[in-house]
Design a protein that fits this description.
Elements (H helix, E strand, L loop, with lengths): L19 H6 L7 H7 L3 H11 L11 H5 L10 E6 L8 H8 L1 H15 L3 E6 L4 H16 L15 E6 L9 H8 L24 E5 H5 L1 H7 L1 H5 L9 E8 L5 E6 L5 H6 L13 E5 L19 H6 L8 E6 L4 H15 L5 H18 L7 H12 L29 H23 L21
Parallel strand pairs: 1-2, 1-4, 2-3, 5-8
Antiparallel strand pairs: 5-6, 7-8
């Protein structure tokens, strides 16, 4: 892959890249050359460059960053930039590695974005469990302040911005942007209704707020140095540039890889020598999660799909957070389903009744099946509960192929945020494909005998 530029990982081989000296002398460009290039242009020109490059969000939705920045209402101040470093989805760890190995790249990306949108305050929100990432970013911020790269009159210009490092408490739900904003304001992390609380209009402190993912911002320094045309020369037309993917599970070489967007296939990732290097023990692929635990599962027939948002979406799933979990033929589909559902049930914030109650019901039913106490009606009951969280239609008939092509994506939802529907994805995926595995664990085939009437009382001797 030497012909493909390493846009966000070019310093990962340098041991001291997390320091300001290491950042400045290593990698594909001189550290902080991106903000210098940005300050030589107007904010509008920087915004146009990001739009021209079609920098897609790397946090899950894949929305173009430049268009998102343009949603801020004109003339409304102050504005805020919030960095979503609450990477919490099972199987996802690319942003953590970015913050640990190259924190100055993230800080420089924050400066470029803040300059483009006119923000004087940046809030960098990092997940509570990521202690090493927090320490690395904190040390890098101290170095950047000392070098006049953050703070007042940066590099002798009129541009001033402060970056506040905020540690989360480990809640998955604050990965949702409005819940993250609630947490920043000192409230319990719960999502807000949209409308009216679209962050670009009414975000942090009800002021215009742009929320971007760590990897999204880490692309900006390279872009400012090399330009939009160089950026678009990598990847596909609809998904230019590279992206990080975290490949875990049953591959010989799990890890975080930077790949060209839109042209790399799942087969390349699983079997390529520079990536996953094949399925463990020579086993066959059974299924894989293509974009984080909230994504509907894929199967061997989808392995040749490219990692391109529209293509994967049309096939019924999503690229999401870039977390790809590979499961081989030895995997118990019911156990895998329960493991994912249990996570979402325990991370539900409880604000919405369908999610608060429904995810717990899903977990209890799946656990009952695994414990050998399943009922013949449990599979249809599971799908009925799923339908009340994320309306179907779903296959509710006994035939395993019933309604096979009727599962909607993107999912509909009766909840404020997508956490509830995220618990539905593994259930519908597993039951549609591996219903026989669920049925094999349900040993109570017949209803227990129940007496129609109580026995007659015995005669009492006089």
């Amino acid at each position: 892959m030497t012909e493909v530029p390493r846009i966000v990982t070019s310093r990962w081989d340098t041991l001291d890249a997390h320091t300001i000296d290491g950042y400045r002398r290593s990698g594909a460009y001189e550290g902080y050359a991106g903000i210098k290039a940005a300050l030589d242009r107007s904010p509008a020109q920087v915004l146009d460059e990001v739009k021209a490059a079609t920098v897609l969000g790397r946090g899950g939705a894949g929305f173009p960053a430049g268009i998102k920045w343009g949603f801020c209402p004109p003339g409304v101040w102050p504005r805020y930039l919030v960095v979503n470093g609450d990477e919490s989805e099972p199987g996802t760890y690319k942003d953590r590695v970015l913050m640990e190995r190259d924190p100055h790249q993230l800080i420089e990306g924050c400066l470029i974005a803040a300059y483009a949108i006119g923000a004087a305050q940046v809030f960098l929100y990092i997940r509570g469990e990521m202690a090493h990432a927090q320490e690395r970013v904190a040390a890098a911020l101290n170095e950047a302040y000392a070098a006049n790269l953050v703070g007042a009159n940066i590099l002798g210009t009129d541009f001033s911005v402060d970056i506040v490092l905020h540690w989360g408490a480990g809640a998955y739900i604050v990965g949702e942007e409005t819940a993250l904003i609630e947490s920043l304001e000192g409230n319990r992390g719960m999502p807000r209704l949209k409308p009216p609380y679209f962050p670009a209009a009414k975000g942090l402190y009800l002021k215009p707020t742009i929320v971007n993912n760590v990897e999204t911002l880490s692309n900006l320094p390279w872009l400012m140095v090399h330009g939009a045309e160089s950026y678009k020369s990598v990847g596909s037309e609809a998904s230019p540039g590279t992206r990080l993917v975290a490949v875990s599970g049953h591959v010989n070489n799990p890890g975080v890889f930077e790949i060209p967007q839109g042209t790399t296939t799942y087969r390349d990732l699983f079997y390529g020598e520079q990536y996953g290097n094949g399925i463990r023990n020579g086993n066959e692929l059974k299924m894989f999660i293509p974009g984080g635990a909230s994504a509907p599962w894929f199967f061997p027939e989808q392995v040749d799909l490219p990692l391109e948002g529209r293509t994967v979406g049309a096939a019924g799933s999503m690229l999401g957070s870039g977390a790809i979990v590979v499961m081989d033929e030895t995997t118990d589909a019911v156990k895998a389903c329960l493991r994912v559902v249990r996570f979402f049930a325990r991370e539900s914030c409880g604000k919405c009744s369908p999610c608060r109650e429904g995810t717990s019901w899903e977990e209890k039913i799946l656990q009952r099946i695994l414990d050998g106490h399943g009922r013949p009606s449990d599979l249809d009951l599971l799908l009925d509960v799923a339908d009340n969280i994320s309306p179907g239609p779903y296959p509710v008939a006994a035939h395993p192929d019933a309604g096979l092509d009727a599962v909607p994506f993107p999912p509909r939802q009766t909840t404020i945020c997508p956490l509830g529907p995220s618990s539905v994805a593994p259930i519908t995926s597993a039951i549609r494909r591996f219903r026989h595995e669920f049925e094999a664990k349900i040993t109570r085939r017949n209803a227990l005998p129940v007496s129609a009437a109580p026995a007659a009382p015995a005669e009492v001797a006089p």
